[in-house]
């Protein structure tokens, strides 16, 4: 039940994009088609989970014991970036199909603020390792959900009679704003 | 504190670096270094126009040898050359392509229903193929505009997309999303060789024209004052607009939709107007593709040969015309009288073709001075035979071998040399063909006392055109209908003095069909000094057969060489045949058409080794395009080109009878064009001339006619 609430919170109540406004750049940039959005969302889930799984030990075994918590941001960026590079190489060698499908998105999110943000949030909330990993996974799922929803809307907007000045990104931003309002409604659920 | 933080960050970075370095060693994937180099040459637009998912995939395909170096549609020749350099290959010339719209209908087309769904062409097309009744037209919701990755398309007037040719990279995205096929990717050579297809938007005139002139476009260009554009439009299909504008019997005008209201648009006069404009204002340069260096022999310098040479040259090949006479032009120069087609016009037209880089070798007779083996030795990759039909058939009646019984072609060729003056002579011409009319008109002008044409047909069954018959009668030649020659009376010297004729009648006089038969007991005789036989013409096959009458080519019983109707290919793969040699007696437009079709086949044959048949060719007029119950608002009389008076015609042999039309006349005539599509048309055409005194409302005119009809 506890984990269930955690997942619901991460996916809906404090959705990483629509409520916390992290990762707005890929949210706009890769949401033109549902297929692209799915690829990107998958890659984000993958990297977020791995990132937390790696930064948690570093925080608890390196930064906290040596009392250098202020290095958190820089160290996390370093670690996540290296990790993604490593994962990319690994996938390319051993799981080419997965590399092909995640291919271009992996390097795009090496230092994505959503990924870094989740890693830091896990530490701020002082989750245990398991809770932290579950929270990251759910946050990634929340990102995927938001991305797929807006991509589907934008696909329809492409053929809709939108005034010329609003075509493209402007109308997408307005849509994102309204989606964000809609997600605020989940606040009441979480209490 | 500082030391520890620096140490931690440094330590972590070092560990990550070592790990990554190790990983790059262990997890290294073999990749051809050329892929990266090729990818660096590509523009990186990932447009997908080449058919591969992105530039890196295209680069991989190039390195794997699956794609040629000129794969990138978005990049130009420089990129292809850069890739070829990396790959150590040579680069073929790749022709630039461009998207083009075939629909000119816009909102004119009839709607089957009003579509109010999603504003996307593909969505609309799912509903009974869209709201437009023709099924070929642009739906106008701009799917192509949104699909274009290079912003080269915008929606213009009447919701028709306009392609900016400078920005178009021919990636084909627009053609891919277009559900009706109204927007297509085409290139210079493809448009030059395009044969009408059933899925093209063709007005009736464009379907009827043998060379498939883009009538609609060139007339609109005249209307907008773009004579240069109109000329280039004509020359994309017809290399001889000056000639055709004068002597074509214009079947297009007879099928023109405007005929429902008044008369067909004077397409022929407009063609001549544009061509004359060029002749008087200086030659307009024509685009020619880069040289390919492939040699093609063309036997015969008549309209078919000239047309074939012209198209091959524009495609970059090296055609050489072999001509047995002193100069090119064939029948145009040697048989058609000057008062119909002045020599300087023929000369100007031919010079224009030769200036493109066509070589001509005169006094070269096929079968005598050279043959097919010689051509092969000289490196000609294909041969086009177009030696024409220069032989008049004998009548096979007693006395037809008399000295003063001559063939029509021989007579016309000899006008000015063998026959300069016929004063005091009586001439009888046998046959009802157009050349018979030419001979009659020439004979009258040469001063013959009397010129009589005998034909076994009734007037409306004669093969000559009505206009030609009128002109022959205007100058004073006499037409004896439904008479047949039986024999010639000859004197002791071997000259014919008279021809015996009988009346002829159709098998069923009420239904004039087939060949008339002689009526017994109606014999009479006509005395004359010169007899010209102009019944029919057939090719002289002596160059193609040996003494025993056996040759390489398959022939018809009538004595023409068989070539495929679409490709002109004979039974010898690299030999093509066209013009009157293939068809027998015909009109100049058919010869030009054969030349163009042969050029298409030869181009494919020498570049790819095979001759593809065209897909969905439009061979006859499609019935759906012949409309009934059209609504046209303005009635504008058809332009009548001025003609010189009969007296002047008789005084000067070479004086051209028909004159051109003036600028205003041309603009007004062009405004009569309904700009027809396959089923759509402009019902308001000609509104800008509504103030003219001779322009009336069609409905009003109909009412007046009905009123006077009942009154009288």
Explain how this protein is built.
The complex is a heterodimer of chains A (191) and B (712). Chain A is mainly α and 191 residues long. In chain A, 75% of the residues lie in helices and 0% in strands. Chain A has one domain (39-185). Chain A has helices at 2-13, 24-29, 34-63, 72-94, 96-102, 105-108, 113-124, 129-158, 169-184, 187-190. The longest helix of chain A has 30 residues, at 34-63. Chain A is globular, with a radius of gyration of 17 Å. Chain B is of the alpha/beta class and 712 residues long. Among the domains of chain B are: 295-390 and 539-608, FAD/NAD(P)-binding domain (3-Layer(bba) Sandwich), CATH 3.50.50.60; 392-538, FAD/NAD(P)-binding domain (3-Layer(bba) Sandwich). Chain B is built from 26 helices and 22 strands. In chain B, the strands form 7 sheets. A 5-stranded parallel beta sheet of chain B has the order 7-6-5-8-20. A 5-stranded parallel beta sheet of chain B has the order 10-18-11-12-13. In chain B, strands 14, 15, 16 and 17 form a 4-stranded antiparallel beta sheet that branches. In chain B, helix 2 crosses helix 3 (55-63), helix 10 crosses helix 14 and helix 14 (267-281) packs antiparallel against helix 25 (663-672). The radius of gyration of chain B is 32 Å and the shape is globular. The termini of chain B are far apart. The chains are: A mainly alpha (191), B alpha/beta (712). The A-B interface holds A 62-63, 66, 68, 70-71, 74-75, 78-79, 82, 85-86, 89-90, 92-94, 158-161 and B 4-5, 8-9, 12-13, 16, 19-20, 23-24, 27-29, 118-120, 123, 146.
CATH topology of the domain at 295-390 and 539-608 in chain B: FAD/NAD(P)-binding domain
N to C succession of SSEs of chain A: HHHHHHHHHH
CATH superfamily of the domain at 295-390 and 539-608 in chain B: FAD/NAD(P)-binding domain
Give a count of the beta strands of chain B, DSSP E runs of length 2 or more: 22
> For the residues shown, what is the average pLDDT of chain B?
88
Report Rg of chain A.
Answer: 17 Å
> Regions of chain B with pLDDT < 50 over 5+ consecutive residues?
none
CATH class of the domain at 295-390 and 539-608 in chain B: Alpha Beta
């Amino acid at each position: 039940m506890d984990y269930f609430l955690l997942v619901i919170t991460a996916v809906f109540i404090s959705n990483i994009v629509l409520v916390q406004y992290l990762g707005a750049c890929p949210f706009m940039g890769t949401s033109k088609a549902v297929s692209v959005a799915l690829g990107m969302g998958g890659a984000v889930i993958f990297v977020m989970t791995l990132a937390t799984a790696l930064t948690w030990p570093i925080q608890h075994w390196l930064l906290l014991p040596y009392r250098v918590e202020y290095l958190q941001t820089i160290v996390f960026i370093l670690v996540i970036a290296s990790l993604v590079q490593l994962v990319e190489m690994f996938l390319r060698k051993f799981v080419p199909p997965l590399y092909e499908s995640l291919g271009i998105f992996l390097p795009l999110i090496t230092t994505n603020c959503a990924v870094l943000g989740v890693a830091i949030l896990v530490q701020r909330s002082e989750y245990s390792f398991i809770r932290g990993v579950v929270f990251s996974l759910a946050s990634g799922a929340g990102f995927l959900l938001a991305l797929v929803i807006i991509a589907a809307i934008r696909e329809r907007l492409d053929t809709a009679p939108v005034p010329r000045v609003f075509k493209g990104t402007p109308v997408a931003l307005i849509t994102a704003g309204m989606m964000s309002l809609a997600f605020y409604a989940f606040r009441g659920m979480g209490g | 504190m500082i030391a520890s933080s620096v140490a931690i960050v440094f330590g972590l970075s070092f560990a990550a670096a070592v790990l990554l370095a190790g990983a790059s060693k262990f997890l290294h994937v073999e990749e051809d270094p050329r892929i990266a180099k090729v990818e660096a040459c590509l523009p990186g637009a990932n447009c997908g126009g080449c058919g591969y998912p992105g530039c890196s995939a295209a680069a991989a395909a190039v390195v794997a040898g699956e794609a040629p170096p000129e794969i990138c549609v978005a990049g130009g020749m420089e990129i292809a050359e850069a890739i070829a350099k990396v790959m150590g290959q040579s680069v073929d010339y790749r022709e630039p392509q461009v998207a083009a719209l075939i629909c000119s209908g816009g909102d004119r087309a009839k709607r089957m229903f009003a579509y109010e769904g999603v504003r996307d062409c593909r969505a609309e097309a799912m509903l009974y193929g869209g709201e437009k009744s023709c099924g070929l037209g642009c739906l106008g919701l701009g799917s192509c505009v949104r699909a274009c990755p290079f912003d080269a398309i915008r929606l213009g007037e009447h919701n028709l997309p306009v392609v900016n040719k400078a920005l178009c990279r021919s990636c084909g995205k627009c053609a891919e999303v277009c559900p009706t096929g109204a927007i297509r990717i085409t290139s210079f050579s493809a448009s030059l060789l395009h044969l009408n297809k059933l899925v093209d938007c063709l007005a009736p005139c464009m379907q009827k024209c043998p060379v498939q002139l883009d009538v609609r476009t060139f007339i609109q260009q005249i209307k907008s004052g773009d004579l240069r554009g109109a000329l280039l439009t004509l020359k994309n299909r017809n290399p001889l607009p000056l000639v055709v504008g004068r002597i074509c019997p214009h079947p297009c005008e007879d099928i023109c939709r405007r005929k429902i209201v008044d008369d067909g648009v004077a397409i022929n006069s407009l063609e001549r107007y544009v061509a004359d404009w060029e002749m008087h204002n200086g030659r307009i340069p024509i685009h020619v593709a880069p040289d390919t260096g492939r040699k093609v022999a063309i036997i015969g310098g008549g309209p078919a040969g000239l047309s074939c040479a012209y198209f091959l040259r524009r495609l970059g090949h090296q055609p050489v015309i072999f001509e047995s006479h002193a100069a090119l032009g064939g029948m145009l120069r040697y048989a058609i009288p000057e008062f119909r087609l002045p020599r300087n016009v023929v000369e100007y037209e031919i010079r224009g073709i030769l200036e493109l880089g066509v070589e001509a070798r005169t006094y070269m007779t096929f079968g005598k001075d050279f043959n097919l083996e010689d051509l092969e030795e000289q490196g000609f990759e294909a041969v086009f035979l177009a030696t024409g039909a220069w032989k008049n058939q004998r009548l096979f009646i007693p006395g037809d071998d008399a000295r003063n019984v001559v063939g029509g072609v021989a007579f016309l060729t000899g006008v000015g040399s063998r026959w300069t003056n016929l004063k005091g002579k009586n001439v009888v011409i046998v046959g009802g063909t157009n050349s018979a009319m030419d001979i009659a008109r020439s004979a009258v002008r040469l001063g013959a006392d009397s010129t009589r044409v005998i034909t076994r047909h009734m007037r409306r069954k004669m093969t000559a055109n009505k206009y030609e018959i009128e002109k022959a009668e205007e100058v004073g030649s006499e037409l004896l209908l439904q008479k047949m020659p039986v024999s010639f009376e000859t004197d002791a010297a071997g000259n014919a003095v008279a021809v015996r004729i009988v009346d002829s009648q159709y098998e069923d006089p009420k239904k004039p069909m087939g060949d008339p038969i002689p009526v017994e007991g109606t014999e009479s005789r006509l005395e004359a000094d010169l007899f010209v036989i102009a019944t029919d013409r057939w090719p002289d096959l002596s160059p193609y057969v040996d003494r025993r009458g056996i040759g390489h080519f398959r022939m018809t019983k009538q004595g023409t060489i068989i070539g495929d109707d679409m490709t002109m290919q004979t039974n010898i793969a690299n030999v093509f045949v066209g013009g009157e040699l293939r068809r027998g007696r015909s009109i100049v437009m058919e010869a030009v058409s054969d030349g163009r079709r042969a050029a298409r086949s030869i181009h494919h044959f020498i570049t790819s080794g095979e001759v593809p048949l065209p897909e969905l060719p439009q061979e006859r007029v499609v019935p759906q395009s012949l409309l009934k119950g059209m609504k046209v608002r303005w009635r504008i009389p058809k332009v009548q080109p001025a003609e010189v008076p009969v007296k002047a015609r008789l005084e000067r042999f070479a004086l051209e009878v028909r004159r051109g039309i003036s600028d205003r006349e041309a603009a007004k005539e062009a405004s009569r064009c309904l700009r027809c599509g396959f089923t759509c048309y402009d019902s308001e055409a000609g509104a800008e001339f509504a103030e003219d005194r001779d322009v009336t409302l069609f409905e009003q005119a109909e009412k007046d006619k009905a009123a006077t009809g009942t009154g009288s």
